[in-house]
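Project channel, design review

CF: Before we commit to the Luteimicrobium album constructs, I'd like one complete example in the thread so the newer folks can see what an input/output pair looks like. Taking RidA family protein.
RD: sounds good, go ahead.
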Amino acid sequence: MASEIERINPAGLHGTPGYHHVTVVPAGRTAYLAGQCPLDGAGNLVSDDLDAQIDQVAANVLAALAVVGTGPEDVVRTVIYVVTADRGVLGRVWDRLTTSAVGPAFTTASTLLGVAQLGFPGQLVEVDVTAALPAS
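CF: and here is what came back for RidA family protein:
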């Protein structure tokens, strides 16, 4: 599917740090992942450390994509939520995610948000993902 996904940065829009303003996919099947949290398989928060939480979220995204037969290269939209008002922290999260195994997912239409809180006590990051699926 990845070869059929078109990523565009239109003339006249600002440059980006790796994502694209527009992602176009042919009509077909899509997968909408629930927000992936830094929880392990038993449902426990992995750590209060931001990097450890980012790494767990990336692993969870990969596992969720794999179950539907796709990978980060087929992601067409991401939203990253980070509990912070600090732009430096937002940049740190972006850098760690984009250099992780799930990094190709963030070359598509992406949004990075600082938020007041997330759903689990101590949770610092969450990633929402939409992927185009191969034809069945």
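RD: helpful, thanks. Residues 87 and 133 are 33 Å apart (CA to CA).
CF: Residues 2-132 form a domain with the 60s Ribosomal Protein L30; Chain: A; fold (CATH 3.30.1330.40).
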